[in-house]
Amino acid sequence: xxxxxxxxxxxxxxxxxxxxxxxxxxxxxxxxxxxxxxxxxxxxxxxxxxxxxxxxxxxxxxxxxxxxxxxxxxxxxxxxxxxxxxxxxxxxxxxxxxxxxxxxxxxxxxxxxxxxxxxxxxxxxxxxxxxxxxxxxxxxxxxxxxxxxxxxxxxxxxxxxxxxxxxxxxxxxxxxxxxxxxxxxxxxxxxxxxxxxxxxxxxxxxxxxxxxxxxxxxxxxxxxxxxxxxxxxxxxxxxxxxxxxxxxxxxxxxxxxxxxxxxxxxxxxxxxxxxxxxxxxxxxxxxxxxxxxxxxxxxxxxxxxxxxxxxxxxxxxxxxxxxxxxxxxxxxxxxxxxxxxxxxxxxxxxxxxxxxxxxxxxxxxxxxxxxxxxxxxxxxxxxxxxxxxxxxxxxxxxxxxxxxxxxxxxxxxxxxxxxxxxxxxxxxxxxxxxxxxxxxxxxxxxxxxxxxxxxxxxxxxxxxxxxxxxxxxxxxxxxxxxxxxxxxxxxxxxxxxxxxxxxxxxxx
Length: 508
What we know:
By secondary structure, this protein is mainly beta. The protein contains 3 helices and 29 strands.
């Protein structure tokens, strides 16, 4: 499983916008418990040159991320990406188009508050808890009105919106890692329009009776048009999949070629002649590091034989008898091996994992294949099934699901059909998605970009993947769909099969 989500634990909207009477501003108002957040800029509504702005602030708990990293549930720095995801909330007001939102880390602590009123700005803090345009909390003002942010280019993240209805999705990996390692304290992020799109104003004071002095930002290069109004769902929304999250994504797949091992061939590039093998050291049901090896290197040799290893070690592609394997994670080791068919006189291969000093830890078996060219372009179609899919899962359940795949046009002889089990075909590039069946909503879209966070693993038994049911809203039915990468057309092709299941929140 290469996806985890961490939901915001505080969010609010802060404004210097006018109240409906166009005389007083809502600079002291708090909207911490509203189920949406707003970002907008209004130019010239109260008078020629007047400025009204709205910004959003969101904070995420880092404890869950650091705990998951310490426990190995998410990878180390450099092997995982973190995305800020905030979801569009449809509304009846005008939606701005062709604009850019900026995300910056907030540089001081602030309070969420309990205000609700996004229209009339009646929920003023007046000494109660909650951030507003002027103050970060009931006890401390912002250094700069509108919030204190880290604004260097290295701390600025941007996304451009064309229609105005898009979700916000920005890679903030660098920032999250800085929160984790303590470079910056985690006070969350602010979301606002760029300085050039926030409404123009030549100075920072107002001087008009009834208006908070200094509540207007100097924007000498600002916009003389309005961007009103972009809304996002807040953490208080009733919609499970619309809450603001930091989404961790990584390629968690393991490609174990034991069941799809090929002899080296001049038909294949060097990288495709390597076969990656894994050793999984289970002790009483738990993955455990091998004593004496620990997190260090392990040696692997190949032997040939009919049913057991026999003779001497075979000469490998590096003209040596051993390959050095590496530690992957607790109890798991891997090695990449290549060998030519000429080096082995018998049908089967056996991989022996050892320390080079006489201690053997594991012996595996391999049935190798031989690459061959073809006179026609292959256009395979497949039959799919999830062999161990259950009808119902608990919301806290982690499931390892095995995908059975075979060529749909497989045509055995009567003897083969009567005497052999059909072997599963290994798909080297396969991805899954999860959708809610009642409305087709994509709960987990295909992750086939740079992070490959929904790509399937494979081993001697075929393709598999781990899925955390906590990613789904309980009480609904969902479906798995699969896509396979077709190198002939250089695209992912969705397979015509759906596998349905339900997630429940049991009280016992």
